[in-house]
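Check my protein:
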Amino acid sequence: MKPLRALFGATTVALGAAMVTMPALTAPAATAATSAPRAAVVSRDVSRAAGQPDGGVNSSASSSWQTDNIVWALAYAKGVVYVGGQFTSVRPPGDPAGTGTVARTYLAAFSSTTGALIKSFDPKITSTSSSPGVYALAVSPDGKTLYAGGTFNHVNGSPRGNLAAFSTAKGALTSWRPTAGSKVNRIAVSRSGSSIYLGGLFASVDGVARTYAGAVNAAGNLLRWAPVLDGPLYTLAVPPNGSQVLLGGYFQTINGVTQNAAGAVDPTTGRVNVRWGANIVPWHPGTCTSTVKDIVVSGSTAYLTAEGNGGGCFDGDFAVRLGATDKATDSLAWQNDCLGATQALEVVNGWLFKGSHAHDCAYAPGGFPQVDQGSGWVTWHLLDQSLASGTLGHWTPDTNVGTTELGVGDLGPHAMATDGSQLFVGGDFTKVNGKRQQGFARFGRGPDQARPSTPAAPAVTSTARGVDSVTFTAVSTPDVGTLSYQIYRDTRKTPVGTVTATSWPWALPVLHYRDAGLRPGSRHTYRVRVSNGTHYSLMSRPSALVKVSATNPPRSYARTVLRDKPFLFWLLDQTSGKVAADSSSHHFNGRYEPGTRLRVSGPIAGSRVTATSFNGRYGLVTAAKPVASPRAFSIEGWFKTTTNTGGMLVGFGNHQTGASTRYDRHVYMMNDGQLAFGVYNPALKDPIQAIESPNVYNNGQWHYVVATFGPRAGSGQLALYVDGRRVAAMTTSSDQSYVGYWRVGGDNLGGWNLDPWGSNSQGTTEPHSYYFGGSIGAVAVYRYALSAAQVAAHYAANALSH
């Protein structure tokens, strides 16, 4: 496997004297599919206290016994974790398979504090099924009774029809003995303990017809709760107020009403469907369906998993706001669109933890596009998310995938539970964080235990008088996202400065520090050390010796741009009026449209030149008159944003306002903050010819972008530069020819899909918004392709680049 830092790029954030570069993955281009912009239910939530893991859950697995096969169900009660599955033995922590084994048939109990086997709990479960095992566990509200379901026919020699109950005090089998006609997948108990809801593959309970769902009471008597489903039920849950019972599975109707894979019914008869708001289930019945495998409820919100039935179908999770009564309407709170068959969820200390094999989170805030490492996709089996928005957090331990789950795929984790502070994980894996641990893992509380890795030696340049620019690649830990980087000059024992930055394993920032006030002509080396608030890394190797510059760039930014003769140069610095004046000699003015705000702070350091703000919905600056599309061109400008809904920065379209019907030559931002640039040629099989930055730039700081297209013999060269450096390029055929308008801030982007799946249930890499929300300034267009040297000179002319 390639190191992830070699797979991902970086973006720049100015932090006073420091600059931080935040990276993201890049997804390869694919065939376009037209769609309209959508509203995004996302928010960026990346700030963390140094040294504090999300939810206080440590990513290092604590010592615990393990199993010899898949764990499908977990439950916690009174200091004990109950583990159900298809295993027939358990063994001590770290022991390889086949050593130190103790017989346990499908059900075992471990101490929640030490992970030790509870020897007194040893039910003998037998089955004649081809898939024997315990697949469902639940504990009564008073913690005294453990309910188990699955595929078995005897417990301790007594007949039991796929259902059984045990005393948690003594581990003894109780007299509770309802019978399910087939496999039980899930059990949920009402808050009073009077109703025990069942879901699975059965068609009857106690010989009475029940299609995949039924209920009994604490005495084992059948209840009248009987929703009618047209497919198997895999999970169910009861909210604290008992107002409804949530259902999830592989079905398309509930009580004859179309309700794909998830819904809710009344808690008494199950025959009344609770209203779910429009589009609450984020996939499209008939074209792309999913199966819900788990539901967890916290307060008045339910969190549901999804496993897509087909490539590109919704595989993420989503949150549903629950109505106060069974007459109220449930509504979608958010959805996280990671592809990778989400199997299990649990809430611990204000964070949502998930088990999946996430491989493509390009549509999720804080997420990552799909990356092929040669032998398969990069996958993440354990992640966490914000309860409020579904944003990915920074808890990133990992499991491998076992070999016992034939025909299912590389899923790994299948079940989660908590005691309120620890997270317990069960599934089909043999290793956790690279160490032997099969079937079950325990993640305890505590600060980040992982020492940050040693950063590489920094690179240092000096292009301004008395200033050294220090650049280095950040690191990550599997617990903490916010790390501090101390920069040391020469052999000094105290740092000259500190940079704080957020990182993920899949997104290692490239960081910059500006060491100013140095004596021109002096020579220095630099080193870096990292802290997570608990541990320090080792010191990096020293940089190469650098000589401090004695001169500054010879021209101002504006003079540098004008020297290269742009076709138009809109500083967007007007203080009033509707004319965006052209500062070049061509007097090719633009026009401010509604949704723009003048006189916001500008990008040119040491200058009073302002910029313009765009509202992200319809804000636009457009050319006052049309021109023929240029054969060769460059687009240049500065932008600043925190948007996570994307939008076009600069482009060319055949309509002065509104949505163009012919449009290309545009630079736009994707939802995750990556930049894309491309042209369109309808004569090609793949008409969209586009390149992407490997970086994200929606971090609230000014960035400089240049996009160029220069024709060559029979073809052309696309190039994209960010902050003075070329980040992407490709050779392509010519672009299309038409008469249109240069536009800043927004235009139609329909069909600009760079998603490797082509099209899927949650959308494409088109931005949610076609209009950019943020500030833009100093936009220039040239009728030729700027060279790399010209781009570098323009960037160097702005003191922000030093």
Q: What stands out?
A: The first strand starts at residue 13 and ends at 15.
